[in-house]
């Protein structure tokens, strides 16, 4: 799954780059699964995943689809305001908009960094 129309470049990526993205995601997925399997259930409501410089990464949606987030876990993306504003606009128009709980301010006016809360 990916957010459509988020790649400004019309240039196709080489297969090795796509394989690299896939391997990266599978490694992160395995890390999350092993961590959530080892963490006591009492810690779950305090769990947070923070993605710095998230850009247009769609890991949240892939991990959500795999149903590996424990109850109460928060997924927080932090990136530049313009990047997150654009990402929020794309997601709000997509089939995934119901999965979001975007903070009321969406994009903080006086900051170069914005938090986009994607909660479970």
Automatic annotation (TrEMBL):
Keyword Phosphoprotein: no
Reactions that this protein is recorded to catalyse: [phosphatase 2A protein]-C-terminal L-leucine + S-adenosyl-L-methionine = [phosphatase 2A protein]-C-terminal L-leucine methyl ester + S-adenosyl-L-homocysteine
Membrane-spanning ranges: none
Any single biological process term in GO: methylation
GO MF entry, a single one: protein C-terminal leucine carboxyl O-methyltransferase activity
Alphabetized Gene3D superfamilies for the sequence: Vaccinia Virus protein VP39
One Gene Ontology cellular component: cytosol
Keywords linked to the UniProt accession: Methyltransferase, S-adenosyl-L-methionine, Transferase
PANTHER family per record: LEUCINE CARBOXYL METHYLTRANSFERASE (PTHR13600), LEUCINE CARBOXYL METHYLTRANSFERASE 1 (PTHR13600:SF21)
Name recorded for this polypeptide: [phosphatase 2A protein]-leucine-carboxy methyltransferase
Native source organism of the sequence: Trichonephila inaurata madagascariensis
């Amino acid at each position: 799954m990916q957010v459509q129309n988020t790649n400004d470049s019309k240039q196709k990526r080489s297969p090795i780059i796509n394989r690299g993205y896939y391997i990266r995601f599978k490694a992160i997925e395995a890390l999350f699964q092993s961590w959530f399997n080892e963490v006591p259930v009492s810690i779950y409501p305090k769990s947070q995943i923070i993605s710095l410089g998230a850009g247009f990464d769609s890991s949240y949606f892939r991990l959500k689809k795999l149903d590996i987030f424990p109850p109460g876990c928060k997924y927080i993306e932090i990136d530049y305001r313009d990047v997150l504003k654009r990402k929020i606009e794309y997601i709000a128009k997509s089939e995934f908009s119901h999965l979001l709980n975007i903070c009321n301010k969406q994009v903080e006016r006086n900051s170069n960094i914005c938090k986009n809360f994607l909660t479970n």
